[in-house]
Amino acid sequence: MSERVAVEWLKLYAEQIRPRGLPGRGDLLGRLSPDAELSGPVVRMVEQEAGQLLLWPGEFSPGQWDWDSVVTAQCARSDELGLPLVWYCDDAHHALTARLRAAGFTPQDREEIMVGRSTEMACAPGARPALPAGTRLRPAATGADFEQVRELAVRVRGGSWNWLPAALERWSADEDDPCAVTVVEAPRHKVVAAGLVRFHTGTGFASLWGASVHPAWEGQGLYRSLLGHRAALAARRGHSYLYTEALPSSRPVLARLGMVTVTTHTPYQYSPPGRPHGAAQTSASTTANPPRHT
Questions:
Q1: Structure confidence at residue 135 as a pLDDT band (50, 70, 90)
Q2: What stretches of 79-122 adopt beta strand conformation (E)?
């Protein structure tokens, strides 16, 4: 894929997805977020389950903010609440990343924004491998299905994921960014893999989230089947592009299906005085962005 195409896709992503804010990212990493607020150039929310503050870029022009003051204000809020802070920062924003490091923030694992054409991904060699005998791929639409998806997430990633069934039900009924959840079901109706795709109405994009594969079923093509199936769903709905946010460990399989990295971002962690570094459980390890993100 040429560098020119990657630049073109980044421009489309920035124009069509960034302005959507929270809905365009699955309501800020999937959490029910009634307390999310715009704080200067960032969206800020308290993530109750992990006990931390999350910050995500809002709509802004980098030159219009005094970033030293912005960083100081966000650290002060973290100190006031006694909560660790995780700040998602575009790696291209060198002025901010330098200030975060100087203020004592610790960078976590870098995540890649990857984009691909949905029709090409759906038809890519290896995108739709034969499933193991006795398994089937089907849509999930009931409360019982969503609870099984939660149980799988707990098994694969740890944590409680108590918020997930309600979030999946709400997203499935969302008119602006509807969600389709797909599972792979083994004998005795046991869900052994799951993933979701959100269709961003009015844009050329759909987004991939939350793929999980039970450890006992890894290496049997379930992950790729979920990718290919969701790409086909996006293409049928008229979304020409898919995007996802993934750790580098996900990149090889995504690249084989035609996705390219168009930009990167890094979560930076800050702990207030009296809280050791690492006290926050970064969203990269607990939500939609682990190696099995897509």
A1: very high
A2: 85-90, 106-107, 111-117
